Amino acid sequence: MQDVVLDACCLINLYAAGKILVSGADRPKPSKRKDASVSPAKKSPLDFRLHLPAKVKGEVQYILQPDAEDSDKLVKVEIDLESHIRAGLLHECDLEGEAELAAFVHMAVKLDDGEAACLAIAKCRSWLLATDERPTERLAKQHGVTIITTPELVKRWAAKTKASDEEIASVLGNIQTYAHYFPRKTLPLHSWWMKLVKKARAD
After folding, report:
1. What does the pLDDT look like over 92-120, one tens digit per residue?
2. Are the beta carbons of 103 and 123 closer than 8 angstroms?
3. What is the SS3 assignment for 75?
4. Which among 32, 101, 104, 177 counts the fewest CB atoms within 10 Å?
């Protein structure tokens, strides 16, 4: 299984999607039990081993959700990643060794700490880097790091799960509404994304 390190933007998008990081219909509820060994790891529907750097975990704070009293209004809701970590859907990691720390310091001159940590880890461990940030993409290419974007992750999830167009459109709508992410026009999958969203609205 291929390793992917997630930056904050991509992680928030996957969380907001509602199906990609969740096994079952409902979002997992927090548990008081801290021993991760008691729960067997669940296989990611992306068929990737998803890694969460410590600095990214500190940056991922909230998504938007419908207000309980007014469904037409969106309010900030705190993101809880602990259940995903315990379930084995996300794997915590941190910078290790002199090479990764040196790479982080170098990257942090141009990027936020979370993005710099992701890029340093991806470079030193030969992992994929999930990001939608153009500065991170440009620097990653300079260092020979392979990038995967939110649209690519969603399309992979759709292929692996054999999701219907309606299910895919629902996920895309959730990401747009709750994470405020819209793929830029220069992305190869922009037309694929917009076509499904437009079709869902027409239906």
Report:
1. 999 999 999 999 999 999 999 999 999 99
2. yes
3. strand
4. 32
Contacts of 46 (CB under 8 A, 6+ apart): 4, 20, 153, 156, 157, 160
Whole-number Å distance between alpha carbons of 114 and 23: 26
With tokens 């694929």, the residue in question is: 192
Nearest C-alpha neighbor of 10 from the set 122, 147, 127, 126: 147
Query: Are the beta carbons of 46 and 156 closer than 8 angstroms?
Result: yes
> Which residues, 6 or more positions from 169, have their beta carbon under 8 angstroms from its beta carbon?
196, 197, 199, 200
- What's the whole-model pTM score? 0.87
For the chain, the straight-line distance linking the first and the last C-alpha, in angstroms and rounded, comes to 37
Q: Give the class (CATH, top level) of 2-148.
A: alpha beta
Which tens digits make up the pLDDT trace of 36-83? 443 445 667 888 999 999 999 999 999 999 998 888 899 999 999 999
Phi, psi of 55 (to 5 degrees): -70, -30
Cα(28)–Cα(32) distance, integer angstroms:
13
Neighbours of 59 (CB within 10 A): 17
**Torsions phi, psi of 91, nearest 5?**
-120, 120
Average pLDDT, the chain: 89
